[in-house]
Specification:
38% of the residues lie in helices and 39% in strands. The chain has 5 helices and 8 strands; from the N terminus they run βαββααββαββαβ.
């Protein structure tokens, strides 16, 4: 599975942006070959909006680029702020319960040397993931990496804000073994799920 993440920072009108995604972008996406779903997350106090789309293959994602570029520019006019577009490969999706609107989401940016992605992913899957899942209130996790740049994201959905905050408090000790292996952590973003279009 491949992904495209469109992020808006300094967003001025998040709610109008979510409405635009629901009413204009999703119908366009549904007409694209290989489209497999979308989630929108928001940090309203921080002015951040993220639109993550899922694609069956890299070719499907790239074929949709020209069509969706127009939507993105229209969205930027509505949402405001600055826009960035990133592409990743989904390495892992662990879903205990599907995310719903209002679910808290913690997004962590990471990076590692591209040659060490596979080795560190195996470590994450065997050692880190069970510890995250053992936290009360765990709902789902998605890990994505860009094999060329070594940059990636780990997004974890929680049952409520308290569960997310408790897990965040224990994150430093959980991350140290990964840091020792060369993984770099570039900050956390605390959001809520604002819209979901998943099959």
């Amino acid at each position: 599975m491949q992904t495209r993440l469109v992020s808006f920072t300094g967003a001025k009108d998040i709610d109008q942006g979510v409405d635009y995604v629901r009413e204009e972008v999703v119908p366009t996406l549904n007409a694209q070959h290989g489209y497999r779903g979308l989630t929108v997350s928001a940090d309203r106090s921080g002015g951040v909006l993220g639109v993550l789309s899922l694609w069956e293959t890299e070719a499907d994602r790239e074929a949709s680029e020209s069509t969706l570029a127009k939507n993105r520019q229209e969205g930027l006019g509505i949402i405001g702020g600055e826009m960035s577009v990133e592409v990743f490969e989904q390495f892992l999706a662990e879903i205990t319960e599907r995310p719903i609107v209002g679910s808290p989401l913690m997004v962590t940016r990471i990076s590692v040397e591209p040659t060490e992605i596979e080795e560190n992913f195996e470590f994450f899957k065997s050692e880190v993931l069970p510890r995250i899942k053992s936290n009360p209130g765990f709902r789902s996790l998605r890990m994505m990496m860009n094999r060329q740049t070594g940059h990636g994201l780990v997004g974890v959905v929680w049952a409520d804000k308290e569960a997310m905050e408790t897990a965040a408090a224990s994150a430093p000790s959980r991350r140290q073994p990964s840091i020792d292996r060369g993984v770099k952590f570039h900050g956390d973003s605390y959001r809520e799920i604002a819209f979901v279009d998943l099959p």
